[in-house]
Amino acid sequence: MKEYITGIQHVGLPTEDMKATRDFYGQLGFEAALETLNNGAQVVFFKLYNLVIEAYEVKKAAGAIGAIEHVAIDVTDIEKIYEEICNKGLNTLNDEIHFLPFWENGVRFFTIMGPNHEKIEFSQRL
Fold this sequence. Notes:
Layout: E1 5-15, H1 18-27, E2 31-38, E3 41-48, E4 51-57, E5 70-75, H2 78-87, E6 98-100, E7 107-113, E8 119-125
Parallel strand pairs: 1-4, 5-8
Antiparallel strand pairs: 1-5, 2-3, 3-4, 6-7, 7-8
């Protein structure tokens, strides 16, 4: 499985206030690398060097320490990773491979849950 993983792709951060989020990360030097909508909710990928934070609007964010919603791992072959995860019994959410029209050609991804209720997303930019 390691041969298909290239690193962390992004960290997912739900927000109730995109303007405050944009202002805060902008002051830290992040730039908006992609702005889009997902089911009517605003999504902004903030980038600083090789660190990417995906902020997305929700009605009610946890607003507490530990509120990062997921960590996305960058992969080169989503089908192979999905097959290996399922074969190892690690597809704890019984998720399927999804597509979103993000970035230039879209992204395919699926998510599993770790033993501490951490969500791990495997994501391939197309």
